[in-house]
Amino acid sequence: MKILASRVFWGLVLIVGGILFLLQNVGVFQGSDLFWGACLGLAGALFIGFFVGDRQQWWALIPGMILLATGSLILLTSFVPGFNDSLGGLIILGGIGLGFLFVYLANRSNWWALIPAGALITIGIVAGLDQVVSDVTLGSIFFLGLGLTFALVAIAPNPAGKMKWAWIPAAILLIMGLIVFFASENLLVYILPLGLFLGGGFLIWRSLRSRSNA
Asked: How many CB atoms lie within 10 A of CB 211?
């Protein structure tokens, strides 16, 4: 994929893009969005193709997905009637998040990539639902998404071994998400009684199990 390093190639892309922008601004041509959307998509495909040709170059997946997501958003916004602009954040952030997810799938030792992947996809979902659900519910989704991200880090296959430390932020974030959710649904008054009930049942179960093993 020497074309990625070719200054002539990228120079020609910029020159053609500048000409199209000029023609659009003077009312001669109305297709610069198509040009840039296609160019960004092609550039993204080139980066991904670079990775396919050499699986050690996992870094290429990140700019590849960024370019593909950006190009897709330009094309959708310009050529799909009734496209909801609020989905732009989901497409861009979700695309970048998928890039990091693919980095992990390409090499399981890159467990760290799961954190930005989960965080970006979660933020993208929150952005996409911004006009659909309440702010409190969005807060719940945010905490739950981050909690699930760390839970995935804890259980995902990893040559370095299980990341048990990830259960701590996972538990904290999941609990915060549930508290926010129950508060938004006016169900918080049931949490303490339910927690006491489950805690008591757990202690009784542990006591009976200890006696049976004695």
From this structure: 8
